[in-house]
Amino acid sequence: MTTEVSLPAVPGSVRTARRTLADAARDLELPADALSIAELALSELVTNAVVHGASPIVLRIGGGEDQLRVAVLDSGPARPRADETQLDATGGRGLAIVAAVAGTWGVDPVPGDGKWVWFRVSL
């Protein structure tokens, strides 16, 4: 089963993405701990797409027996990086958080401008 939705590049899309994930989690019968991890990582990816990316933003959620895969597409040309952030910085920790909580994550470029930023959570 795969769920895919388009989101506007507005801050409220983070909440919409989390609701979409919660609905998919029920259908996939995800354990609560996996859902908590996925919600945190998803919030970071959608926030990054809204702040640093470009429309359209697409959310894709898929799952199987042993893992959940979540991907966020935006049309911005910048490739995200999990840089070290200064301790007094007010941002810049999103991908570091994703890397810390998700099993694996990555970036797949899209021909032209854009990229899919994704993560997997083991179930």
What this model shows, in words?
The chain has 123 residues and is an alpha+beta fold. It has a single domain (2-122), classed as Heat Shock Protein 90 (2-Layer Sandwich). Helices cover 37% and strands 28% of the residues. The chain has 3 helices and 5 strands; from the N terminus they run E-H-H-E-E-H-E-E. It has helices at 12-28, 32-52, 94-101, and strands at 2-7, 57-63, 67-74, 104-109, 115-122. It has a 5-stranded antiparallel beta sheet, covered by helices on one side. The longest helix is centred in the middle third of the chain and has 21 residues, at 32-52. The chain is globular. It starts with a strand and ends with a strand. The mean pLDDT is 88.
Tally of discrete structural domains: 1
Largest sheet: 5 strands, antiparallel
What fraction of the residues are assigned to beta strands by DSSP? 25-35%
Number of helices: 3
What distinguishing features does this structure have?
single chain; globular; 37% helix; Heat Shock Protein 90; five-stranded antiparallel sheet; alpha+beta; 123 residues; 5 strands; 3 helices
Strand and helix layout:
Blueprint (H helix, E strand, L loop, with lengths): L1 E6 L4 H17 L3 H21 L4 E7 L3 E8 L19 H8 L2 E6 L5 E8 L1
Antiparallel strand pairs: 1-2, 2-3, 3-5, 4-5
Helix pairs in contact: 1-2, 2-3
